[in-house]
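protien #1 (seq + structre)
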Amino acid sequence: MENLYKVGGSLKRLKTAETLLWQGKVEETKALFSNCRGKQVKNFIAYLDKHNSRIVNHNCYQEEKLCSIGSGAVESAIKQIGARIKISGAQWNIESVNQILSVRCAYLNGLLVI
């Protein structure tokens, strides 16, 4: 959204674009700006093109309660994983970290019974 508001212009169009992006509708969002010119618009369209596959329908995830859509939960989880693999005296390499994380993910997803 921060890239969207760098475009500027009509607040109504920006709010409409925000709603469309929240629903994962990238092409419809780009169409809103088809008649616009300027560096910010071109940068925003380029951003949408580059990250098209990463823009998901957040409404769907939120309604289904599939996962948290905030970055705070993800960042917190990454910090916890980082702290756990920095055990005093332990030596980790890429292969063993991936194995431990696979087991941990399976356990947390209920796929591993202990």
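ok now protien #2
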Amino acid sequence: MKKLFIDTNIVIDLLAHRDPYYHESAALFSLADQKKTEISISSLTIANTSYIMMRKLDSKKTKEVLRKLRLIVKVLPLDDKIIGLALNDDSFTDFEDSIQYFTAIENNLDIIITRNLKDFRASKIPVLTARQFIETLKQDQ
């Protein structure tokens, strides 16, 4: 079973029903719900997603959505080591992407799933879009 690290944009695509990306993100999370893959996200993703979702929903509804999300994802901690790695790495121009990357690395995850492939050019582990990952599963069958 592949262990996936999901970038914030994919989570928001799912929860905010952002077109045209909603269906592929929903398919990805459905795989986790069916125990065909393991999905992890950073605790930073929870905070960022909450901030974005509160523009559409009130606080109570946002927390309800995030509680449901936690049922199918593993929320990884953001700690001093990850912050240090992100601060001392010059291969990422976006600090948030660097935090996400080092969270995936420090937790030995197999693949990063994002819509922004260019932001993870420096990655030492594979980086795919949700659609690309789903296509690889179809090829393996």
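The two ends are 14 Å apart (CA to CA).
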